[in-house]
Amino acid sequence: MSADPVAPAESSAFWQSVQRAQAAVQSLSLILGSLPDAVASSENPAAALLNDEAVARQVSIRLRRPGSGAGDDNLCRWLYDTFQSNDPDLQLVVLTFTPTIAGVYLSRAISREPLAGFEAVLLALYAYETVIRGGDPETVILPNLANPSVYHEAKAPPKKGAMELNIAVVSPALEPYGTVRSTKRARIVGVALELYYSKISSMPLSSKLAFCEFCMVWAGQDIGTENDGKEEGGEKTAAVGADENGGKDEGEVKAKAASVDKNGGKEAGEVKAGRIPLPWELFQPIVMIVGHCLLGPANPEELRTTAYSVVEGLHWRATHDMNPQEILATRSLLRLGKMGDDTIAEPQISTSSDDYSEEALKMKARLT
Amino acid sequence: MLCACSGEQYRFEEERPPSPPESLATRDFSTGGLSSRVGGLSSRAGGDGDSKLDDAQVDDVVESTLRETLSLNYEEARALLGRLEYQRGNFDAALQVFQGIDIVGLRPKIIKAIAAWTRARQARRRGECLQGNAMSIHSVTLLIEAMLLKSKSLEEIGRFKDAALECKTIIDIVESAWPHGIPEGIGDDSKLKEMFHKALELFPKLWMQAGFLEEAIAAYRRALMKPWDLGFSRWASLQKDLAVALLYGGAELSLPPHLQQLWGYAVPTSNIEEAILLLLILMRKVTFQEISWDPEIMNHLIYGFSLTGQFEVLAGHVEQILPGIYDRVERWYVLALCYHAAGLDDDALNVVRKALSYSEKKHKPHLPSVILGAKLCCKRPLHAWEGAKYAMKANEISQNQKHFLGVTNHLLGVCYGNCARLSVSDSQRLKLQNESLKTLQHAANIEKNDSEVVYSLARESTMQRNLHIALENATKYLDMVAGSSVRGWKLLALIVSAEQNLREAEAIVDLAMYESGAMDQLEFLRLKALLQVAQEQPKNAIETYKNLLAMVKAWKELQKWSLSSEVKAVKDLEMEAWLDLASLYTKLGSWNDSYVCLDKAKTFELFSPKCWHSKGKLLEAQSKQQEALIALLVSLSIEPDYVPSMVSMAAILRTRGGKSLATARSLLMNALRLEPTNHEAWMNLGFISKAEGSLHQAADCFQAAYELRQSTPVQNFV
């Protein structure tokens, strides 16, 4: 990723990858117009592309434009081709835009616009993950404290064979899909987000902030509560609210607002770019990503505060959907986020003491 | 003097500015040279030195002072000076001073000195280690402290990576001297140990600050994998930090091979496993009261278990929490959520009942618990009234908290619908049905964007055979979720089939299959076959069943590993398919085929009311009425409320006439109580009335049977 000098044996591979990246930059500049010099004439174009905010903003504005993501969308084609180049650095560049692609796609899927361009990119991510996992589900073997580890001693030595493995499926096995089947849409996007999560430590801040912004819209907290019937207004405040915390990306806000206005003008009732169905297969990767944004090491304050409001929105949504799994996950994140904010002890402790005193009162009452 | 310095070391963090006397002395070194004047100070300071030191250490001090002929060497002087600058907050200056110490060159000597000192302490034979040119342990401590302060100075000026590397040197050195952890016989008062512990703690934090997650995690693991005698709280806080880094770091960093080897059995294969293990260890420490309760640990654990879906295990941990930490209602709520998420709805409901029981009446009712209770009751028709009670209560509470009003009305509507199906009297049923639709409509008005309400509305209307509204809402629902809901598709197909528009229903099923994955396709295939049977296309239906069974077989072979719920669903589906085939062959009159299919179905579950019912029907078709009755009786003895068996039995009994008519009638009445829309039951009731001579009543029954048949879907809604 960095522009360190490379050993001669690897140099040909290195140059090949630089050439690929240069080609990608070239074709991107054809789509976007001119690119900043920092990217265009960089020694390591892939890394420059990954970290260049101006390019990221331009791309995300284009992805949010009304009518984007159709089958003939050049940018989607570029994203698709770039991901298919199988160059890890370039794939990271594509992954940075996963939040925006997924966000715009899921919000628009409801209105049945042609979205073949977005679908192609998402399917490419899904197919990549399918190949990597090789038809196996992602599982976790639950640790058993009866087995010794380097972190603790077991009381009794494990009886061989007697220990039953407690295996949990984190992500079920993937079926290959050539098109987005509507009942599998959430799964396909969810897997793309799982892939995004697996690389999240390399993702730039703007990408994570974009994700948080869309999460707020998906959760749809503001809609249906304060703004009964005024979906658009609610939606705009949700988007802007997320970005107010996010700061900087004014261009994105404008683009977002513009897309809302445009669509809103076109057909008022149609663009409910708000609440979308959030089944667990989609909710789970969302929570993982937001969990990272909230509690990941060395995250900037800006991201943490944004993530915290996203967790609030998700928790609100979970309590509305009455899904216990979602409630428990967001609830714990909410509390952890709060604890990070101020180091005052948990509020529950005070309530529990209240509880006690009341208990004591009851006892007394019985005695007298 | 060294003793005094060491005494200071404990406080170097807190104490800025420093104490003056030493500063005077050390200023001398810095300006002049490493003169012998220090000696005087040394012995003086040594006199009022740390009384905590044991004899051996005091002796060491004396000997080392003697041996070093009352002088400090260059490195020691720099170490002292650097500390002063650090304490004053002059980190750059401190750094400059520390940089003059050639740690690389001194490294072997330090390692040797620590090893020798350790041997001496263990043997309790003083002096042994001091032969040769080994450094005294005090110089070593001083140097290690210098390195630690250097690292801290680097941290202060924001050079985190360099700070971490400096810290690493300390750990490398000490680890080379103590390859198996802190040896026995090193007391708690050892300054060297204290320095080392501080370095262990600091090291991963520095990597974290520098933004190197991988190195940070490696550092945590390194600190935790050897018996460094860190003490409970330090150990626990390192474990917690590692768990947090692993859970939220966002990068999969598997254990290095040497650690895996060390681990041996049951090595964690992913970060989340390792994190959960650490959190479980911490929870156990809490239970044994080795560390105090930390809500963060529990919340991290809930998060970890939620992502991996291990709610039964989580419930166990919630139950283990000592009383007084959570308040009762909250704890019950979390527990109920765990059980519900684990699929143990009965347990969940029991816990919710506790939270809402009489003993909690004095508390303000806990809205989430009430809502959860209503939701749990929604899923089980027999608890309909209890659910309605909760839903009403929730509705009442949420008049003040408007944002739950939609949810509570939704639940209330569903519960009313369930109540209607339970109620015995017609008038009550009608009233409840109306109420249900009204409440659901109200909920839909409040929560305009909640597709689930629309689904419930469609479902309830279908149950009430209000097909027009049902169709409208089912279509709206599928539109709202952009066709992403399998049950939405299924409901739509069933509604259309209830309208007796079988061809279109089949087209919908085809479309749904195109839009779904392999698992859901199996279910749709069965629905398609049922539709084909209803359209009197037995050949096509048999073909579809063949496809279905072939796909099931392929699915079983392909899946190395699947969710138990999926396995069960496929198993049930396979059995249903064989039973469907059996009844299809029965209708076609090919008894042998029917028996073969029935036997196949029985291999899944011998004591299934469905199997015995199917057998009864087959025997009946063969005119073996007596055997048929026995089979149906077996079916009813397994499941006394199994409506199809009641109806079939009544149908056989009715043909016998005489006294059997009364039995048949009572069976049918019972069946209709359970399932008022069963058209076959109405028809048989009509026959009985006709046989009994009450033609008027018979006509009514036939009329009802006809009308219901016209609105019966090919498959019951579940």
TrEMBL record, chain A:
<comment type="similarity">
    <text>Belongs to the Hyccin family.</text>
</comment>
<feature type="region of interest" description="Disordered">
    <location>
        <begin position="225"/>
        <end position="261"/>
    </location>
</feature>
<keyword id="KW-0963">Cytoplasm</keyword>
<dbReference type="GO" id="GO:0072659">
    <property type="term" value="P:protein localization to plasma membrane"/>
</dbReference>
<dbReference type="GO" id="GO:0046854">
    <property type="term" value="P:phosphatidylinositol phosphate biosynthetic process"/>
</dbReference>
<feature type="compositionally biased region" description="Basic and acidic residues">
    <location>
        <begin position="245"/>
        <end position="255"/>
    </location>
</feature>
<dbReference type="GO" id="GO:0005886">
    <property type="term" value="C:plasma membrane"/>
</dbReference>
<dbReference type="GO" id="GO:0005829">
    <property type="term" value="C:cytosol"/>
</dbReference>
<protein>
    <submittedName>
        <fullName>Hyccin</fullName>
    </submittedName>
</protein>
<keyword id="KW-1003">Cell membrane</keyword>
<dbReference type="InterPro" id="IPR018619">
    <property type="entry name" value="Hyccin"/>
</dbReference>
<keyword id="KW-0472">Membrane</keyword>
<dbReference type="Pfam" id="PF09790">
    <property type="entry name" value="Hyccin"/>
</dbReference>
UniProtKB/TrEMBL annotation, chain B:
<keyword id="KW-0802">TPR repeat</keyword>
<dbReference type="InterPro" id="IPR019734">
    <property type="entry name" value="TPR_rpt"/>
</dbReference>
<feature type="region of interest" description="Disordered">
    <location>
        <begin position="1"/>
        <end position="54"/>
    </location>
</feature>
<dbReference type="Pfam" id="PF13181">
    <property type="entry name" value="TPR_8"/>
</dbReference>
<dbReference type="InterPro" id="IPR011990">
    <property type="entry name" value="TPR-like_helical_dom_sf"/>
</dbReference>
<dbReference type="InterPro" id="IPR043376">
    <property type="entry name" value="NPG1-like"/>
</dbReference>
<feature type="compositionally biased region" description="Low complexity">
    <location>
        <begin position="30"/>
        <end position="45"/>
    </location>
</feature>
<protein>
    <submittedName>
        <fullName>TPR</fullName>
    </submittedName>
</protein>
<feature type="repeat" description="TPR">
    <location>
        <begin position="679"/>
        <end position="712"/>
    </location>
</feature>
